[in-house]
Amino acid sequence: MHEKKMSVPVFTPDDEPYLGLETLFVFDKLICSCMELNSKTAPASHGHELSSLQRALCILVPQTISLSLSIRELIRQGYLFGAKVLVRPLTERAVTILYLFKNPAGLEIWDDGWDYKKRPKLQQMIEYLNEHLLSERFDSLKGFTHDLNSATHGDPFSARWNIVLRDDGVPVFLTSKNLTSPKLADEICAEVIPWLAATMGIMSAAFGESGPTSCGSRTDPGSKIVN
Fold first, then answer.
1. What is the DSSP secondary structure assignment for residue 7, as one 8-state letter?
2. Residue 66 parent element (H or E)
3. What is the pTM of this model?
4. Within 10 A of 162 (CB to CB), how many other CB atoms are there?
5. I want to staple 23 with a disulfide (CB 3.0 to 4.6 A). Which of 135, 157, 189, 225 is the partner?
6. Cross-strand partners of 163
7. Are 216 and 107 in contact (CB under 8 A)?
8. CB environment 58-80: b (16+ within 10 A), e (fewer)
9. Is the dihedral of CA 52, 53, 58, 59 positive or negative?
10. 94-123 pLDDT per residue, tens
C-alpha cells in the first residue's frame, strides 16, 4: 500500500497569498532599499581598522537583514506563525544596534561577550531608547515585549497566532500554511518595518560613503559586513 501524500503549494512573487497588502508592499520596497544600501556601505567595512561600534554592526546588521528576508519568505509561503516568532529576534537585534549607537558604554558589555547576566534586557533597552533617543515620547512602554515573548516562548496566549476558523466555524490550530489571515500578515509587516528602517539609519551613520567613522575604541580589521 502506498501512503497518499498531501500536496503543499510553493508560492512565487506572482501568486503569493498576501500579495496586494499595503504593508507588504512597503516591506518589499524597504528590503530593496536596504539591500541597495548594504551594497554601498558594506565595502566601507572591508580592509579598514574598525571601531567597536562598527565591529558590533558587522555582526548585527547582516543578521537583522537576514531575519527580515526570512520573515518575508515565510509570509510569501503562508507560514505566518513562523514569521511572527522571528519578529522578536529581529527586534532585539535592531534595538541592540540602536542601543549601542546611542550608549557607547554598552559597547564594553558587547566586547566582553554580551553576557546575559550583564547586558540589559530588551525591555530595558526599549525604555532607554524612549528616554534618550525619543525624548520620552511615550509615557510608558511597560509590557512592550509581552507579545514578542509570548510568540517566542510558546505560552498559552501564543495560540492566537496559529488558530483559524474552519468553514464550519470550528477553531483549529494550524501546523502548516496559513493562507486566510491578512490581518496577521499585516501585523507582522507593521512590526518589522520600523526596525529595518532604523537599522538602515545606523548603517548609513556608521558606514557612510566617506568610509568608517570614529566611534568608540579601535579594534582589528578582521570583521566585515557581507554583501
1. P
2. helix 52-77
3. 0.88
4. 21
5. 189
6. 173
7. yes
8. bbbbbbbbebbeebbebbbbbbb
9. positive
10. 999 999 999 999 999 999 999 999 999 999
Cell of 155: 505560552
* Identity of the amino acid at 51: S
Query: For the chain, what are the domain ranges?
Result: 50-209
Residue 4: band (very low, low, confident or very high) from pLDDT cuts 50, 70, 90: low
Q: Which contiguous run of DSSP H or E holds residue 165?
A: strand 163-165
What digits encode the pLDDT tens for the residues 140-186? Answer: 899 999 999 999 999 999 999 999 998 899 999 999 999 999 999 99
* C-alpha grid cell, residue 219: 579594534
CA–CA separation, 8 and 3 (whole Å): 15
DSSP 3-state of 23: helix
Closest-CA residue to 186 (of 83, 70, 92) = 83
Query: Cell digits for 11?
Result: 508560492
Condensed to tens digits (0 to 9), the pLDDT of residues 7-39 reads 789 999 999 999 999 999 999 999 999 999 999
What DSSP designation does 119 have?
S
- Cβ–Cβ < 8 Å for 106, 118: no
Phi and psi (nearest 5°) for 33?
-65, -40
